[in-house]
Write a structure and sequence with these properties.
The termini are far apart. It contains seven helices and twelve strands. The protein is an alpha+beta fold and 281 residues long. It has a single domain (3-257), classed as Glutamine Phosphoribosylpyrophosphate, subunit 1, domain 1 (4-Layer Sandwich). Strands 10-1-2-11-12 form a five-stranded antiparallel sheet, with helices on one face. Helix 1 crosses helix 2 (79-102).
């Protein structure tokens, strides 16, 4: 019930890799909605996250990441494992809580003695329930590893209900508005070498396209992540001001999709009669 977008870009002078993050504020269900949720979490000196889904679950997962990444700098050798560990712990905690609430045993005890204590049918039933559990949270984790920008996407993969960690490319998105937003961004041929100012507009335009979904709010927040200064480990950040958003709004009114005032008449030679040979019955 959201739209969060992350994209790689470059500051032209001096040439510096950066990451642009864009998100809405809306939380909603079938009965109510509110544009009041700030969907940005700082995870460590190296990474931040945008989230979609249940705010409570997102906060819980963020706390696991903060605990794991505290006073730790991940490298190319261990970044995937380092980011996967809190995700695995999150899944394990959900399974442990479910079994303690329903059978009064821990997940570890259930795996070791579940068949003996409860029978094979109950054992397989509970494992199936754990496997089908809906985590109700997605994330984009953004940061710099050894000076290079990376996007990681934590999202439900296809029909599998577990969260999966994947390395994003030039951009990645989560939320209900991704179908329209993804088309818009790719139509602009964005890539990791696109200048910062262009990327900011492209993401704004994609976010506005994503507002076609009733679950995406109109309010927009945008952040820019920059690599640490030489000799430092803390990533740097900037955010889009109200004046900056008004500037992007003006650009969107000028360059964004708009209804045509009058449809031109297709010229007579644009279409010709076609002759089809239908197969005999």
């Amino acid at each position: 019930m959201t739209l969060c977008i992350g994209a790689l870009a470059n500051v032209p002078s001096p040439l510096t890799p950066c990451i642009v993050l864009c998100f809405d504020y809306k939380i909603a269900n079938d009965e109510w909605g509110s544009e009041s949720q700030y969907k940005f979490h700082t995870l460590s000196h190296q990474f931040v996250a945008l989230f979609g889904g249940a705010p409570g679950k997102a906060k819980e997962l963020s706390m696991l990441y903060q605990a794991r990444l505290k006073n730790t700098t991940l490298t190319l050798d261990n970044v995937v494992d380092g980011l996967a560990e809190p995700l695995a712990n999150f899944k394990r905690q959900k399974a442990d809580f479910y079994l303690k609430m329903t059978l009064c045993v821990s997940y570890q005890e259930f795996l070791g003695k579940g068949t003996k204590w409860f029978g094979k049918a109950m054992y397989e039933q509970r494992l199936a329930a754990i496997d089908n559990h809906q985590p109700k949270v997605e994330m984009i984790i953004a940061g710099f590893v050894e000076g290079q920008p990376y996007l990681f996407r934590l999202a439900t993969a296809g029909e599998v209900n577990h969260l999966d960690l994947g390395v994003g490319g030039n951009s990645c998105m989560i939320g209900s508005g991704t179908l329209a937003a993804n088309v818009s961004l790719h139509a602009r041929n964005h890539n990791s070498n696109t200048a910062l100012s262009e990327t900011m507009y492209y993401l704004y335009e994609a976010k506005k396209a994503g507002e076609a979904s009733p679950w995406v709010g109109e309010k927009t927040r945008m952040h820019v992540l920059l690599p640490p200064e030489p000799g430092e480990t803390q990533i740097r950040g900037q955010y889009l001001t109200d004046a900056g958003e008004r500037f992007l709004q003006r650009l969107h009114r000028r360059y964004g999709p708009k209804p045509m005032k009058a449809w031109p008449v297709i010229p007579p030679d644009a279409l010709k009669t076609a002759h089809f040979k239908w197969p005999s019955s």
